[in-house]
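User:
I study polymers; will you set down one protein's sequence and backbone structure tokens?

Assistant:
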Amino acid sequence: MMSMMQSVFSDAAWSVWEPLIEEVRPTGKTPPKNLRRTISAIFWRHQNGAKWRALPPEFGPWWIAAQLFIRWSKLGVWQRLFEKVKGAELALGMVFLDGTTIRAHHKAAGAAKKGDTVNAAEIVRRLAAHVEALAPRSA
């Protein structure tokens, strides 16, 4: 049976994404542990439109993924990753965005606040749509 993490990133897809993520992620005193699990949790959450606290237990503590997402949003990591993926010489094929998963709060008419993660959330949704499209195809 396929695990929840593998449903987000197959091994082939992760082999493509890991070097891209390592290239754009900030380096600090302590590297994030379980990077694949945490990135899978972030992508899963944005693919499904779930709340952070609704992450399946297989992805680890919800607050670790939420904290990494917010920290990387403020540092522009998601934007850099999107630019890397967008500029890649890869045939993405057709990508389908289902409008039912793009939700807005009923009070979402206001301007973005300082340090807002709305733009980063949209970028992560787009990145999540490309996960398997970037994986090498087996013949």
Remarks:
- The helical segments are 4-8, 11-24, 35-48, 62-75, 77-87, 118-129.
- The radius of gyration is 15 Å.
- The chain has one domain: 4-134.
- The CA atoms of residues 91 and 134 lie 8 Å apart.
